[in-house]
Amino acid sequence: xxxxQCDVAVVGGGPAGLSAAVAAKxxxxxxxxxxxRDKSLGGILQQCIHAGFGMTYFRQELTGPExxxxxxxxxxxxxxxxxxxxxxxxxxxDKRLICASGExxxxxxxxxxxxxxxxxxxxxxxxxRIPGTRPAGIYTAGAAQRxxxxxxxxxxxxxxxxxxxxxxxxxxxxxxxEGAQVCAVVEIMPYLAGLTRNxxxxxxxxxxxxxxxxxxxxxxxRERVEGVWVQRVDExxxxxxxxxxxxxxxxxxxxxxxxxxxxxxAAAGIEMAPITNGPVVNQHMQTSNPGVFACGNVLHVNDLVxxxxxxxxxxxxxxxxxxxxxxxxxxxxxACEAGKGVRYVCPQRLCIGEDxxxxxxxxxxxxxxxxxxEIKVESGGHVVASRRISRANPxxxxxxxxxxxDVAGDTVTVSVEPREExx
Amino acid sequence: MMEKIITCTVCPQGCxxxxxxxxxxxxxVTGNKCPRGAEYAQSEFVCPVRTxxxxxxxxxxxRPLVSVRxxxxxxxxxxxxxxxxLRGIRLEAPVAMHQVVFENLWNSGVGVVTTAEVAxxxxxxxxxx
Lengths: 423, 129
Fold this sequence. Notes:
The complex is a heterodimer.
Chain A: E1 2-11, H1 15-26, E2 32-35, E3 51-53, E4 62-63, H2 64-77, E5 81-83, E6 86-91, E7 96-101, E8 105-116, E9 120-122, H3 125-128, E10 138-140, H4 141-149, E11 158-162, H5 166-177, E12 181-187, H6 196-203, E13 210-212, E14 214-220, E15 227-232, E16 245-248, E17 251-254, E18 258-260, H7 263-267, E19 292-294, H8 305-324, E20 332-338, E21 342-346, E22 349-352, E23 359-366, E24 373-379, E25 382-389, E26 398-403, E27 411-418
Parallel strand pairs in A: 1-2, 1-8, 2-5, 8-19, 10-17, 11-12, 11-17, 12-13, 20-27
Antiparallel strand pairs in A: 3-4, 6-7, 7-8, 9-18, 14-15, 15-16, 20-22, 21-23, 23-26, 24-25, 24-27
Helix pairs in contact in A: 1-2, 1-8, 5-6
Chain B: E1 2-7, E2 16-22, E3 25-30, H1 35-46, E4 49-50, E5 53-59, E6 65-70, E7 74-75, H2 79-87, E8 90-92, E9 100-105, E10 110-114, H3 124-127
Parallel strand pairs in B: 5-8
Antiparallel strand pairs in B: 1-2, 2-3, 4-7, 5-6, 6-10, 9-10
């Protein structure tokens, strides 16, 4: 069996893995190794050829491949080693990774610490259960994006897109520019799932109708999609009778959510969080297995890659300190809880050590769109941090810094409540 | 006088602004919460611009396509025209990052460059199996 020894092993060479690997090197880890199942680094960014990345991290508008290239160059400069075309099959308790490599066959990677950065995959037709026949022409938006942008394949001529996620809207524009007709983008919720910027630049610019509070109720066609039935839904997301509309089309794209790819994590017995579908971590992105860290979309689905890069640096630095034996001691722990208006908080735990001046960043999402409000972080009956916001949206992640010395008791609760806006 | 509703994309707030004006002249912007919004609304009213991205064919590369972008934002109305123009382009591998595809598009000073590299495909004899 081919054998690799390293200080920090990083599973996945997308934006999260690249950022974690570079940060681990900068923190002093000697041997950092990225294990990537694709033939090249960059992950999903390779197929996201549109611009709009890097506005907060690099303060410059980049395309996906350019954003990835910046990190690939950094990784090369830092002499991060890379195993491509290599799939991790199992994570053993003693921090050994059993992999299948195209070049080396069965491969074992032994590490001082491990960073999990496998990203996520798309929900498919099977996970949303649309009735009807099973013809060709039904794609997830990301699969269609890869076919068009990387493999030079035509996907369809007349398209309906279900779900107003960012990839769906971006594909609406891409397919229109490539000569297809996009009949509509259909969203079951009464509000947009993706970013407003994408609605303006991808739908409004091309007069593509957006049907909020609507869904696809039936797919028609034998060999190939011939059309879809679309219906309005009520507050309980049940189709409203009498609102049926038939769209003739040969393609249905699904942009209906992402699932963190955690088979490896769960099989290793690492504690999982129910809402994020990712591992439970503390502010160092450390999982319930102390030598294993997680970051990026495998931890919780992000809306901006810039956030992934920043969050993954935390994981990379902590993993390096763990491998080097300089990871700080924990004196007590506190659980982070989602209070009023908040759907989830990540990290789920705070480890408080000797340094009480240390600040931890709490990432969270609200449950429903709201106007002016106030974010409050409470601990031990006191508000330890607060900030006023003019609006909040489930599609846009919020964050809040907390000074560890301010954490009293064993819980920290984040809540967002509406406030009267003064004119 | 014309009135146009414009959703701001400068920040995630997404203010709904109403712009009034005629052709190249804007007489008023309402609904913006900051000056950057007013500036964006003016430019959107007069001539909306976008960074154009697409992909072009590569001959003899490890991948059949390379992604490209306009070096600066171009008028949104000419986006389709540019994509059409790029459809006829063939690049020879190897392709470098930020390799120039068009130097001066429509004499506007805007260029088109690649946003990725594509290595040359090795001949089947040397790849082996």
